[in-house]
């Protein structure tokens, strides 16, 4: 008659299989990389920051809680990321900013593609994607109180 002593050892619950440790390390590395790209987006015009930080926070949730706390504590932008990750919501100001940014990005892309001879159906596809993205921001994301 064998007896299972694993439940009496306090460290037994903390031991994870090797494959899970590697998966956590890879998720943490991806989260750190996305967070770094977001920081570059603070400096480089046209490169977004928030979306990279959202993905980084989601990956860090299970792999690196310290990084997640760091992202959430990164000023006003960190609070927006936290609100989106935890409640799938944006403030009205953040929604307006997202819509303005998307409109500018799609408009510039469509103009440049039209001037460079890109087929009209591709330009139309980009514009349609912009409309779909805007509709998602308006109706697919909850609006939080300011």
What does this structure look like?
- The protein is mainly alpha-helical and 146 residues long.
- It has two domains: 1-87, no CATH class; 89-146.
- 73% of the residues lie in helices and 3% in strands.
- It has six helices and two strands; from the N terminus they run H-H-H-H-E-H-H-E.
- It has a two-stranded parallel ribbon.
- 14% of the residues are buried.
- Residues 1-10 have low confidence and may be disordered.
Q: What's the story with the biggest beta sheet? A: 2 strands, parallel
Largest sheet, order of strands side by side?
Answer: 1-2
Helix content: over 70%
From the spread of the alpha carbons, the general shape counts as globular
Poorly predicted residue ranges: 1-10
Secondary-structure element pattern, one letter each:
HHHHEHHE
State Rg: 21 Å
Mean pLDDT: 83
**Strand percent estimate:** under 5%
Termini Cα gap: 63 Å
Global structural class: mainly alpha
Q: Number of DSSP helices?
A: 6
Tally the beta strands: 2
| Count of discrete structural domains | 2
List the SSEs and their pairings:
Blueprint: H1 18-43, H2 50-63, H3 65-72, H4 75-87, E1 89-90, H5 92-115, H6 120-140, E2 142-143
Helix pairs in contact: 1-2, 2-3, 2-4, 5-6
Quick overview:
The protein is mainly α and 146 residues long. The chain has six helices and two strands, in the order ααααβααβ. Helix 2 (50-63) runs antiparallel to helix 3.
Question: What would the keywords be for this entry?
Answer:
single chain, 146 residues, mainly alpha, 2 domains, two-stranded parallel ribbon, 6 helices, 2 strands, 3% strand, globular, disordered N terminus
